[in-house]
Write a structure and sequence with these properties.
The complex is a heterodimer of chains A (231) and B (98). With 231 residues, chain A is of the alpha/beta class. Chain A has one domain: 3-Layer(aba) Sandwich (Rossmann fold), CATH 3.40.50. Chain A is 41% helix and 15% strand. In chain A, strands 3-2-1-4-5-6-7 form a seven-stranded parallel sheet, with helices on both faces. In chain A, β1, α1 and β2 form a beta-alpha-beta unit. In chain A, α2 runs parallel beside α3 and α3 runs parallel beside α4. Chain A starts with a strand and ends in a 5-residue tail after the last strand. The relative contact order of chain A is 0.14. Chain B is mostly helical and 98 residues long. Helices cover 52% and strands 0% of the residues of chain B. In chain B, α1 crosses α2 and α1 crosses α3. Chain B starts with a helix and ends with a helix. At the A-B interface, α2 of A face α2 of B.
Chain lengths: 231, 98
C-alpha cells in the first residue's frame, strides 16, 4: 500500500487532498494543530504544530513503525497574514516563517528519510502566486513562500540521488479560510493579474499535485508550477 | 536508558550494514576507532546522510527514543560528531540523555 503524508488536513485544500488520496486507495497520514476532521480506516491523524521539531520527528518514527516507509509528502500546511508591512508585528512574521518555512523544512527532512528505500519518493511543497505577483499586503506571506520555492529547488538537487523528486504548486486564490476576509475589490484586482481570470478550485490543485506524485513524473524535479497562467 | 556499549554496538551494526549496501570495504568490520566522514573517513556525503538516518531509525526501534543527529557544524567542523564511530556514539549518548 502507498503511504502519503499530508500536512494541514483539518480543512480546506489539505482535507480535500486527504480525501482524494483516501478515495484512490492510499494510506493517508495527516496532521493539524487540532483534532482530526476525517474519519476513515486508512487515515491516521497526528495533532501537532508542524514547526515543532520533536513532534515531527516523533510522527516520523511512528510512521516508520506502522508502515515502514513513506511514498509521498504534501507540505500543504500554511498560514497567511494580509497586512501592510508597516503594520505587521514581529510576532506575526515569526509565526508565518515558523509554519510555512520551518514546518515545510522539517517535514521534508524527516519524511525524506522514510522515502530513501522506496527509490521513488515524491515531495510537493506549496507556494503561492502572491510571490511572483509581488502582491502588496502580503510581504511576509510571499517572502515565506519564496523561501519554500528556494528550498524546493535546492532539495530537488540534494535528494535526487535518493530518487526523491521535490516540486511545488502555486495556487491562485481558492475558496478557503486562507482568503476569507480579503475585500472583494482586492480579490478582483488580483484575479485581473492572472492569464485565466477565475478563482481557483481545489480540483485545480489536486490535478497538479497528482501530476507531480504519479510514477511517470520521476524525471520532473525542482519545478514550481503556478496556476491561472501566472508566471 | 541504554548504556554506552549498547549504543556503540548499535552504531557499529548500522555502519556495517551501510558498508554492505554501499560496498565500502574499509567499513565492513568497523571498530570504535573507524573513521567515518571527513579527513580519512571513507563516507561521501550521501553515504553519511544514509548512515545518520539509519542510526536515528535504529535508536528509535531499539531504545524507543526519538533523536535528531542533525548538527550545525557536523559537515565541516574538525570536531564533527560524524568523524568516527566513537564520536558518533557519543553524539547518540548525549541526545538520548536529553
Amino acid at each position: 500500500m502507498k503511504i502519503i503524508v499530508i500536512t494541514g488536513t483539518r480543512k480546506g485544500i489539505g482535507k480535500a487532498l486527504a480525501e482524494y488520496y483516501l478515495d484512490a486507495g492510499w494510506q493517508v497520514a495527516g496532521c493539524s494543530r487540532g483534532k482530526s476532521s476525517i474519519q476513515h480506516e486508512a487515515y491516521t491523524h497526528f495533532a501537532l504544530d508542524v514547526s515543532d521539531e520533536a513532534a515531527v520527528i516523533k510522527m516520523a518514527r511512528t510512521l516508520k513503525k506502522q508502515f515502514g516507509k513513506v511514498d509521498a509528502l504534501l507540505n500543504n500546511a500554511g498560514i497567511a497574514s494580509m497586512n501592510h508591512a508597516l503594520l505587521t508585528p514581529a510576532s506575526t512574521v515569526n509565526r508565518i516563517l515558523q509554519t510555512n518555512v520551518v514546518g515545510t523544512f522539517l517535514f521534508c527532512r524527516e519524511m525524506a528519510k522514510l522515502m530513501r528505500r522506496t527509490k521513488a519518493g515524491r515531495i510537493v511543497n506549496f507556494t503561492t502566486i502572491a510571490h511572483p505577483l509581488n502582491l502588496e499586503g502580503e510581504a511576509i506571506y510571499a517572502a515565506s513562500k519564496a523561501a519554500v520555492e528556494s528550498l524546493t529547488r535546492i532539495l530537488a538537487r540534494e535528494l535526487a540521488e535518493l530518487k526523491i523528486t521535490v516540486n511545488a504548486v502555486g495556487p491562485t486564490p481558492v475558496e478557503t479560510d486562507l482568503i476569507r476576509g480579503v475585500p472583494a475589490d482586492k480579490m478582483a484586482a488580483l484575479l485581473a493579474r492572472q492569464a485565466i481570470q477565475r478563482i481557483g478550485d481545489v480540483q485545480d490543485v489536486i490535478n497538479v499535485v497528482e501530476f507531480f506524485v504519479r510514477p511517470e513524473s520521476d524525471f520532473i524535479t525542482g519545478q514550481v508550477l503556478y496556476l491561472g497562467g501566472v508566471c | 536508558m541504554p548504556n554506552r556499549s549498547e549504543i556503540e554496538a548499535l552504531v557499529l551494526e548500522s555502519v556495517r550494514q551501510l558498508a554492505e549496501d554501499f560496498e565500502i570495504n574499509a567499513l565492513l568490520t568497523p571498530t570504535a576507532d573507524s573513521a567515518l566522514y571527513g579527513g580519512a573517513g571513507p563516507l561521501d556525503s550521501m553515504a553519511l546522510v544514509n548512515l545518520i538516518a539509519d542510526v536515528e531509525e535504529a535508536v528509535s526501534e531499539a531504545f524507543d527514543a526519538s533523536i535528531a543527529l542533525a548538527d550545525e557544524k557536523a559537515m565541516s567542523a574538525k570536531n564533527s560528531p560524524y568523524r568516527n564511530v566513537s564520536s558518533l556514539t557519543e553524539a547518540v549518548v548525549e541526545r538520548i540523555a536529553k
